[in-house]
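**Backbone geometry record:**
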Amino acid sequence: MGAARLGYLPGIDGLRAVSIALVLIFHAYPLALTGGFIGVDVFFVISGFLITRLIMAELAETGRFSLSGFYLRRARRLLPSLTVVSIATAVAAAVIHLPDAFASFGASLAATAGFVSNFYFAETTDYFSGPAHAKPLLHTWSLAVEEQFYLIWPLLLMLWWRYREKIGLVAVIAGLAAVSFAYSEIAARTDERMAFFMATSRAWELLIGAALAVVLTNREIGRPIAEISGLAGLVAIVASALWLTGESRFPGLNALPVCLGAAAVIVACHARTGTTALLALPPVRHLGRISYALYLWHWPLLALAHYHLERAPSPLEAAALVGLAVVLSDLTWRFVEEPIRRGGLSRLEALGGVRALAPYALVILATAATGGTIAALQGLPGRLDKPAQRIWRQMTTEHGFRQHCDGTENINRNHERCSLGVPPREPGQFDVLLIGDSNAEHLVPFVQLYAQARGLSARQATRNSCSALFGQDRPGASANNRRRCREYQQALLEFIHSQNQLKTVIISHAWHRFDGRSMDNGIGSTATEQTPPEYDLAAFLDRTIRILEQRGVKVVLMGPIAFFPDLPIRCVVQEIRAGRGGEACRVAWGELVADPRKAEHILKSIAGRHPKVKLHLPSRMLCTDSGCSAAIGGKLLYRDAEHLNVLGAKVVYEMAARRIE
């Protein structure tokens, strides 16, 4: 293999500009470009192409490759801007965030410093969900994916170089890409978070770029082919951005068109075409040059603004924030990236080897230690004044969540720890059972008061994100979620059949998430029951009530609470500081994530068909004709935007106790 020619390709900077523009539009105006997140996939293909091109050129020219030199170049390229943005974001978060959010930020900062933030966010975050907006470093997952890939890829290329006479590199890349792609498609169907965040499900995208670097080495591309390739590639990228949404199965097959499109544009960049002329325009190229800094700056600005405003920025506010991000990115590029890139090596760097990496290792360790300290100190609550600290305690510690009592595996164990009310007369036998998802779990204080006042023993038997209605698969859920929830329903049904003194079952859910056409998994069905392929919520409620009433059990249905887009904490704190109760922090009906009145209508209909069923509607305590509030009398009643805290559960009990007798 001859020495590769590494001439500058201006169209590549233009393609970077396209990538960052897609990401910016998606984050600032998600409804305007629902698939703009694919800009990151374009970045992956570009990265795989450029880095493989550099590695192969060094191997071809010298016959060897310096790993320490490679990682030194990566550190000089990535760490200075990342450190500047991380410090600025940490300072802003310290001012804006409440302790729980700041502690979470600290953990993400430590993970970002170690380039493992994709693992952290895979465990804690759905990229497309509302709470993701409270995570200013969420976007660093893609940097982690790249660096994890480049821990292995140079080693594999060096190994191949030793045996290059025996096996072709394109075959090696194709085999690795096929394995990664297959995993990506399977994971996208079974575990969306792992598929989205993990390097194993993204490696094939970088390998497409790598294959391109090998195939195009020392090859001329004819202009007609380049013209068609460039136009087709841009069409594939734009079409994917318009067609895909956060609900699309991704990456897997749905990521293939955009990655092939990016590869096609890179092919076109090797010739003079209309596409490359457009991409090489000076403003477009400059946007591409600052794209790394712009990627780093834009999301913390949008996320911190969202958290501070307790709502998504308005279109005008989003435009201003994007404009600020562009200015900060240009300054970062001019005064941080370029001076380091153009400047000579420091004395320590000039020594070469592992010692050259020491300054960058210290930066990583210091950043990780800072983030870890913030997390370990629980977000430094001492930063807050007394009203804010009181509200924060109500959110974070005064709630009914008990992880050791939630989940299928806990239904038949931890009876003593998960019992409520008075001790059971017989071990494992209870009078009252609380079932449902996390919107049942937040009612644990309610059930404690209910059972204690009546001398009854009670038990929590909840499963986060699962329907407790027998037979119901959650609409739109993944195969993994459906399997877990089916196991929960089966265990729950068996547990109910094992109870000899069960008197009351309290059912609560985030009802709007189960209000849709659902597949019947068969649990609780009978041979005589008519079983259409799909049921609605009412049908599964009917089945569950029938099963329970046949055992002489009273059913209590707890209606929905209001789901806020963001909990108006800042507003509540300001109201309390002013000596008011916080009721003014009301969110209009139309702005709620889910209007509880729709589910209430279904539950009223069900209760009407089953005279023995008791129904209580908690939303009545916080909602009026003008909207819903999260606070009453100076007390916050919510743990987060979707769950009550202990105070909220107690208020529900005070309102419901006599009605559900």
